[in-house]
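hi! just following up on the protien thing from before. the input was this:
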Amino acid sequence: MTRTFLIKLGYLLLEVLTFAIIVFPIVIAFAGIFEVFGMRMPADSGVNNPQNPYQATLVDYIPQIIAFLTAFFVMRKWIFKRSFTEMGLTWKNLLPDLTKGFGLSVILVVAGFGVLFVLQKLDYTGTLFNFEQFSGLLVLFLFQSWSEEIMSRGFLLATIAHYFGDVAGLLVSAFLFSLLHFFNPDFAWIGGTNIFLAGIALGLLYLKYRNLWVCTGFHWGWNFVQAGFFDFNVSGFDVFSFIRFKPLAPAWLSGGTFGFEGSILAVLFLLAFSVYYWRQVDFSTKKLPES
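and the predicted 3d structure came back as:
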C-alpha cells in the first residue's frame, strides 16, 4: 500500500466515523421522545410487520432522514466543506427524476411478474384492497427508499468516490448495501446477488444523473410494486398486497419466500439493466447539477 492510499483511506474512515458520531445521538434522541408516547424504534410495523405503515414511517424512517441530513449539513458547513450537490442532494428535477426512476423499476418488476405468470410459477389466490395499507405502504417505501439512498449512495458512494473514484465508490457501496440485507429472512446466494446488482443499478443511476432522485424513485417503485401490488416478499419480508399470489416451486425461478429478488429472473434483468447504464455513465466527469 502506498502512503497516498493510506492517507486517503484514513480520511475516508474519518468521514464515516464523523457521520456516525453525528447520526447516532440524533436517532437515540428520537427513540427517547417516541418512547414517552409509547412508540418504539424500530416500530412493530412497516416492512416486517405492516400493522401501521404510517406509524412506521414516522418512527423509523423520518428520524433517520433527519439525522442523515443533519450530519450532511454539519460536515458540509463546518468540517469537510463538502457540498450538498456533491452528495446528490439537489432539488433540481426532483419530481421528473423521481418519476423516471419509479417508472424504470415498474417496467422491470412487471416484466418479471409477467414471465412468472406465463410460466405458471405464481398461484393467484384473490384480491384484498385496503386503502390505509395500500397508501401507507406507498408512503413508507418512499421514505424508506430515500433514507437508504441518502446513506448508501449519497454518503457512502459519494464519499468513497471522492477519494478513490466512481468505480470504487460504486462497487464498494453496492457490496455494503448487500451486507445490510445479510440477516434478512431466507437470505440466499441468489437474493444476495440480486441485492448487490440492485446496489450497482442504483449506483449507476446516481452517477448517471448525479442526484439522488432517480435512484430513490427506482428503489421506491421496486419495493412498492413488488410488495404492495404483486404480493412478492421484499427481501424476505412479507407485507400487505392488493393482489394475492403464492410463489410455486422451484424457488430459484419464482423467488420463493424471499420475493422477486430471490429469482434468477431478477439476476438477468438487473444485470442487463446495469450493463446498459454502465455504458451510459461517464466515469471521468465530476460535473455536478446546479443547486
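The chain has nine helices and two strands.
The first helix runs from residue 3 to 36.
cheers
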